[in-house]
Design brief:
By secondary structure, the protein is of the alpha+beta class. The protein has 3 domains: 11-96, no CATH class; 130-243, Butyryl-CoA Dehydrogenase, subunit A, domain 2 (Beta Barrel), CATH 2.40.110; 247-396, Butyryl-CoA Dehydrogenase, subunit A, domain 3, CATH 1.20.140.10. Helix content is 50%, strand content 15%. The protein has helices at residues 11-28, 32-37, 39-55, 74-84, 90-93, 100-110, 113-125, 245-279, 293-321, 327-351, 354-357, 363-373, 380-396, and strands at 130-133, 150-154, 157-168, 175-181, 195-201, 207-212, 223-234, 238-239, 283-284, 287-288. A hairpin with a 2-residue loop joins strand 2 (150-154) and strand 3. The structure holds flavin-adenine dinucleotide.
Length: 405
Amino acid sequence: MEISPIPTLSKEINKIRENTAEIVADKIIPNESIIYEGGESAKELREEIKKEVKDKKLWAPHLPEEYGGMGIGFMAHAYMNEILAWSPLSNRLFGVIAPNSGNQKILLKYGTDDQKKKWLEPLISGEIESAFSMTEPDNAGSDPRSIKTSAKKEGDEWVINGHKVMTSNGIRADFAIVMCRTEEEDDSGEVNSKMTQIIVPTDTKGFNIIRSVPIWGRTGGDHVEIKYEDVRVPIENQLGARGSGHAAAQDRLGAGRVFHCMNSIGQMWRAFDLMMQRTTTREVHGGLLESKQLIQGFIADSYIDIQTARLMTIHCAEVMDSEGDPRVDISAIKIYVPAAMHRVVDRAIQVYGWKGVSSDLPLFGMYQGARTLRLADGPDEVHRILIAKQILRKYKEGHSWDFGI
Ligand SMILES: Cc1cc2nc3c(=O)[nH]c(=O)nc-3n(C[C@H](O)[C@H](O)[C@H](O)COP(=O)(O)OP(=O)(O)OC[C@H]3O[C@@H](n4cnc5c(N)ncnc54)[C@H](O)[C@@H]3O)c2cc1C
């Protein structure tokens, strides 16, 4: 991994990237197989790396300093993410553990002081785990207005009934933030703003895990299906104002999509590096792979895919950071980047032959991850519709689209 200072970035951000790269390249990547194997030596190694991360003040880039994080802001975190992503193990070793990290940000923004004390602080210290429970098996996850799980007020309690699925980390979670319908549709059928997020401790009576959903054939994972059956929680477990659930979900997903894309870019970068190692060393049909024009096409196309994805994502992050309207750019990267990653990883797999699909390399995991990302956080089709809607609106208002902002 070669990470040089980026001339347009501040010294601080470049230093963060350099220090992050040192740990990822020297400590994490060479030890991936030991850490995956688990056991005592993996535990020791993980603790050693975490200590170095903390000593170098690189712990929890998503959190403010008063909560033990780096307090570095959105752009620095985005730029750090593409380095972290070189190894799938890094985020956890740097204190960013999904879905806890997203829940921490939501609790920071919407939580009361009491909620922060009770849920946020132990979540940050690692004493407890959490989940985010929005998607339902019988209603379209891509249309949050269709959510049916209801919360009704009875005295000083919310009573929750509903059926959720793909609640990640659900088995280990001590609490779930549950998206509930707390108000009825009005005459126009408008329900978008009538969702509320409610904190549900997972040991509450009626929080019933039905099964763990196997993903890509892996059983025993932690994406779970849950029935909420007369689950009673105190009114003060409501997170944010009544009806703010949809806005809170968008808050979580907006910045999250930029981080996910920078994460995909880091993975593509590593896949590209691996592909280059193979093409410059593997002899086939009387010459190195690098001498074959079909393979030179792989190199050029992958460069173009990565650079396009990276520049689009950085542009989107800059629009967000300057408080412009990032909606079209968020949807554009959410479609483009996983698809580009899919192509880049696919070429890397191809040049490795059997090894590409084996567990000797991280490529198969990246390949599945890229495919999964086309569904999670909103499927491609929904984002295409959003892009077209925004652009059409501009033209209908008599303007044209300005690509410069
Ligand atoms: C690995 C993983 C982890 C996840 N973790 C969580 C989690 O922790 N918590 C949680 O709540 N959810 C989670 N999800 C769920 C995820 O958010 C949903 O899968 C996603 O929002 C899509 O919803 P759905 O699966 O219900 O698909 P649906 O809404 O049923 O959509 C199915 C398909 O229909 C098509 N489609 C949808 N709308 C349109 C349209 N208007 N026009 C044309 N085609 C359309 C798209 O191709 C879409 O993929 C996770 C998903 C995955 C894969």
